[in-house]
Write a structure and sequence with these properties.
Elements (H helix, E strand, L loop, with lengths): L1 E4 L6 E4 L2 E4 L2 E4 L4 H8 L7 E7 L3 E8 L7 E7 L1 E8 L10 E7 L4 E5 L3 E7 L4 E7 L8 E3 L19 E2 L1 H4 L4 H6 L6 H16 L1
Parallel strand pairs: 6-14
Antiparallel strand pairs: 1-2, 2-10, 3-4, 5-12, 6-11, 6-13, 7-10, 7-12, 8-9, 8-11
């Protein structure tokens, strides 16, 4: 595995190696020791999610309240997606910025997003199967969305020429500036504190 830190601090693209022979292939999708060595922290999954999306489906932007937040480790089992990492941490040097990574199958790469970073993805193929481990269980009261078409964030869909399909929930979600004004976004300090406590708890 090779880890590359993205322009959003604490977020990484992980390149996965496949061992191929006449039977097929074998790949390690996640390894705690390598994750810790590359990032300086641990990642303990509390829930594993799986979604299938047809071509043109756009999911997100989603994020969770901090504390306790929800870090994510995302990979594609079949198909192809464009994965968006959006910095929603007030006080971060890249606050409001984003980076996109194309994830392909069979599980050639993955993305890790720390607490306080928003997540969205666009399916570039039919039956794109996405698996993501998360650091906390789903809690609808602490989960939030931002309209992925918000011009203030200006996500680039890379000249995607097909129709984009968005859920009513995401389409009707507030914009980025609305959430800033309402003070609903987490601070970088809060996110760093959650991560530091998480590391300390794992060390004891």
């Amino acid at each position: 595995m090779k880890y590359r830190e993205l322009s959003i601090s604490g977020a990484y693209e992980i390149s996965l190696a496949a061992h191929v022979d006449s039977r097929g292939f074998f790949s390690e999708l996640f390894k705690q020791s390598q994750f810790q060595m590359a990032t300086g922290s641990n990642f303990i999954a509390q829930q594993l999610n799986l979604s299938e999306s047809k071509l043109g489906v756009l999911r997100g932007i989603h994020f969770a309240d901090v504390p306790k937040g929800q870090a994510k480790y995302v990979q594609v089992l079949s198909g192809r997606i464009r994965d968006y990492v959006i910095d929603l941490r007030v006080g971060s040097s890249t606050f409001g910025k984003w980076e996109a990574v194309t994830l392909t199958s069979p599980a050639s790469n993955a993305v890790f997003l720390p607490e306080g970073v928003g997540h969205a993805f666009l399916a570039l193929e039919d039956k794109s199967l996405v698996a993501y481990m998360v650091s906390s269980e789903f809690n609808p009261e602490s989960e939030h969305a931002i309209n992925p078409l918000d011009p203030d964030l200006n996500l680039d869909f890379n000249d995607f020429s097909e129709d984009i399909f968005i859920s009513d929930k995401d389409k009707n979600a507030p914009g980025f500036l609305d959430l800033i004004e309402a003070k609903r976004l987490p601070s970088l300090e809060e996110c760093d504190l959650v991560r530091s406590l998480y590391i300390e708890n794992e060390a004891t």
